[in-house]
Amino acid sequence: MKKIVIIVGTVAVLIGMTIYLDRATRLPAKPVEETIEASAKVEKPEPEIKLKDLKGKDLALSDLKGKVVFVNFWATWCGPCQDEIPTLIDMQNRYADKGFTVIGIAMDDEGQSVVAPFVAKEKYDVNGQKLLINYPILIGTDEAADKFGGVMGYPTSFLISRGGKQIMKFQGPPDPGIVEKAVESSD
User: Fold this and answer.
1) 1: confidence class by pLDDT, cuts 50, 70, 90
2) Which DSSP state fits 47?
3) Cβ–Cβ < 8 Å for 91, 70
């Protein structure tokens, strides 16, 4: 009985610490204009990464220069990731013809064997239609996440300008207003 109390107590403390640390490390929301301006002052070059897509072809982030790129680190088992996928599908539909693309980087440990069937069958409600993921999915690595400065949880996304600069990091769902401003800008 004593062991059970110790185990339950330890689990409760770990859960409490996780919740506290999650809340303590969140950044407060800022108005779109302020966020875009602040992020432009701290631009970093896009990292040099090359990953395989679901068909085994290499795709380098540098291949997408000239486009606004929304890089989304996610996993098939991640509930919040599933919640934001309809927004990403919608953004891809709305902005693809304006030089924009979402790139999904799947971080599942099992890699392509889990991700490819998931992407092929899962449909999402987007504006009343059931749609498959319509943007490129790459198989991620810890090294790729590290090149972005590390990813503390999923979903984590990065917005990259046409000029190849990281201009924004999102923990959780993206702000469509920020994405739209980036798409409409010349850089």
Assistant:
1) confident
2) P
3) yes
Contact 85, 115 (CB under 8 A): no
As given in the structure block, the two tokens for residue 98 are 């304006």
39 pLDDT more than 50: no
**DSSP annotation string for 6-42:** HHHHHHHHHHHHHHHHHHHTPPPP--HHHHHHHHHHT
Report how far apart, in Å, the C-alpha atoms of 72 and of each of 5, 11, 24, 43, 160 are. 41, 31, 23, 18, 11
Domains and CATH numbers, the chain: 30-184 (3.40.30.10)
Q: Which residue has the higher pLDDT, 11 or 181?
A: 181
Asked if pLDDT for residue 116 goes beyond 80, the answer is yes
Give backbone dihedrals phi and psi of 125, rounded to 5 degrees, phi first. Answer: -80, 110
Distance CA 33, CA 23 (A): 24
- The token pair at 16 is 């409490």
Per-residue model confidence (pLDDT) at position 6:
78
Q: Which of 27-31, 97-101, 183-187 shows the highest mean pLDDT?
A: 97-101
